[in-house]
Amino acid sequence: MEKASLNGAARSSLRLRWRRFSSSGSVGILGGLLLMILIFGLASPFFFTVENLLNIAKQSSINAVIAFGMTLVIISGGIDLSVGSVVALAAVVMATLMKVNVAVPLAIAAGLAIGAIAGGLNGMFISRVQLAPFIVTLGSMSYLRGLALVFTKGMPVYGVPDLVRWFGNGSVWIIPAPMILAAGMALLSLFLLRRTRFGEFTIAMGGNEEAARLSGVNIVRYKTLVYVFSGLCSVVGAVILMARINAAEPIAGTGFELDAIAAAVMGGTSLSGGVGSIVGTIVGALIIAGLRNGLNLLNVDANWQQVAIGVVIMMAVIIDRIRKR
């Protein structure tokens, strides 16, 4: 009797998870991913090779990690245009510290502090001063990029320790290290969003901020924490990026904010706030990376690739609008 009850509870939980997944729009985007894979697989004999599929996973990892933070920000009713600049500033600071023989954990801790401070300032200006998220993060996108350029005098910082390079180029068996980091960040984001008060309040703020305030949610605290988390995700992305290219550049991360927004929105996160899916964001990041990879294999001009990515982003926004109606 007790076993039957447990089985029934498990089935009920699975049905609830499926309804949540399907209502987020992730089912449709998953179908889009499978269709894209089929088209490129038929068009290029190299697409389905293990090496190429693992390469797509590595290429999508940086965008996915940054997009997890962006997903929570958009769910809360905001936007974060500063993520690419956080990547650049954190990367050049971490690489510089490592170059003067500062221990790797301390250098990464300094980068995480930069991400947390940058995100915290964004959140404070948005929640306490009540400025528009677009304006605040547009400003921080500019000044953080400027700080990265000033710090390095506009020059790249070459060379990172082998331990750090493993995060971009190493693997466990055949699983690339960037994919492992992205999976860890995905699990953390899922836990925060679905199993904590932080996630519950994030959804509530995006659904109806005034109602959340009247219900006792500390808007200043939790909205600030959302942007702090976005900053931390950007720093993890910075670690993977500088590990992959063995350098940190003050111009790195340009356009990362657009890719992160696109991955989140394509994955079912509503630009109106209150609705979002980490799993959907993973699928969105894979679509962007797979699209670029497939077009490269077909020798499509880089300019036309940019056109294709733009069209996909526009389609995602249109689908989001239709879904809201």
Description:
There is one protein chain. By secondary structure, this protein is an all-alpha fold. It has one domain (30-40, 48-324): ABC transporter involved in vitamin B12 uptake, BtuC. Helices cover 78% and strands 2% of the residues. The protein has 14 helices and four strands. It has helices at 2-23, 26-43, 50-75, 83-99, 104-127, 133-152, 162-169, 177-195, 197-207, 209-214, 219-245, 256-266, 278-297, 302-324; strands at residues 157-158, 171-172, 175-176, 247-248. The strands form two sheets. A two-stranded antiparallel sheet has the order 1-4. Strands 2-3 form a two-stranded antiparallel ribbon. Strand 2 and strand 3 form a beta hairpin. Helix 4 packs antiparallel against helix 5. The protein is globular. The termini are far apart.
**Which ranges are low-confidence, i.e. pLDDT below 50, for 5 or more consecutive residues?**
none
Query: What is the averaged pLDDT score?
Result: 89
Shape summary:
globular
Q: How many separate domains?
A: 1
| Rg measurement, Å | 20 Å
The CATH C-level class name: Mainly Alpha
Please report which band the strand proportion falls in: under 5%, 5-15%, 15-25%, 25-35%, 35-45% or over 45%: under 5%
CATH architecture: Orthogonal Bundle
The end-to-end span amounts to 45 Å
CATH topology description: ABC transporter involved in vitamin B12 uptake, BtuC
Order of helices and strands: HHHHHHEHEEHHHHEHHH
Which strand order spans the largest sheet, edge to edge or round the barrel?
1-4
> How many strands in all?
4
Structural class: mainly alpha
Sheet having the most strands: 2 strands, antiparallel
| DSSP helix fraction | over 70%
What is the count of DSSP helices, taking H or I runs of 4+ residues? Answer: 14
